[in-house]
Amino acid sequence: MAPSDVERGADPREVLRAREAALPWEHVVLSVVIPAYNEVKTVERLLRRVREVPLRLEVIVVDDGSRDGTRELLPRLEREGLIDVLVMHEVNQGKGAALRTGFKSATGDIVVVQDADLEYDPLELPTLMEPILRGRADAVYGSRFLGGPHRVLFFWHSIGNRVLTLMSNMFTDVNLTDMETCYKMMRRDLLQSLPLSAHRFGIEPEMTARLAQAGARIYELPITYHGRTYAEGKKIGWKDGVSALWSIVKFNSFGERARRYQAPDVPPWEERRLAAASRAARSASGAAEPRWS
Q1: Residue 48 pLDDT > 90, yes or no?
Q2: Which domains does the chain have, with CATH numbers?
Q3: Angle 82-84-178 (CA atoms, 0-180°, nearest 5)?
Q4: For labelling alongside 64, which of 10, 39, 71, 158 has CA 20 to 30 A away?
């Protein structure tokens, strides 16, 4: 489902069904990890939007010590079936800590990060999955700087993002356009092999550094972006940008490195599709055989 399909008002289920013959959508599970901190105004709408995505989902929400009513709201949303796994941090530990908690809970074949603030559209998740399902990528980044529709906002934020991406690329020797994007999607076995340790927003450059160290095949695709102002709840600031610069140096130059990743010859979703096709063939064959008494 390309962003243009969504904009034209095409039913995402119809778009997805048209591709089912080529890709094993019904045999893959996507774990959506959502860190939440003081997002009471948007988290319910975001979760309902996620549940509109026509995929087999495992929705994991980690509340990172919210104090605005978010942690009181989330148990009700869990009872309604909007959340599959709910984890509560008693105190705020940072986005990186919340994500690491969520990653440990994930059991799907593919894992993606989804912020709770409605800046990123979950209906684009099937598009991001395609390079992985086609065997071309181990990880996919959704880039805000590849020409997708976006809200016009802070000039210096965009410059800061590009500088951080440039610095990251210099250390990792990959040519990303948006290292700081929320939309990072990857195979679960790859993700859970990465030695992640960042607590705050340093998780973004750390994940990128570890993927490069692992030799993962990374794709980028354009996404839409509906950025927020600080009045609307945006949290990241200039201090986080300075911290990210140090994180780029730290995670690329010091400490434990990710081990090289080798994807299995047959991914689990293909194994399931082959097994389902074999069962169907046996069933059809059995139905056609004459019954001898």
Answers
A1: yes
A2: 28-288 (3.90.550.10)
A3: 85
A4: 158
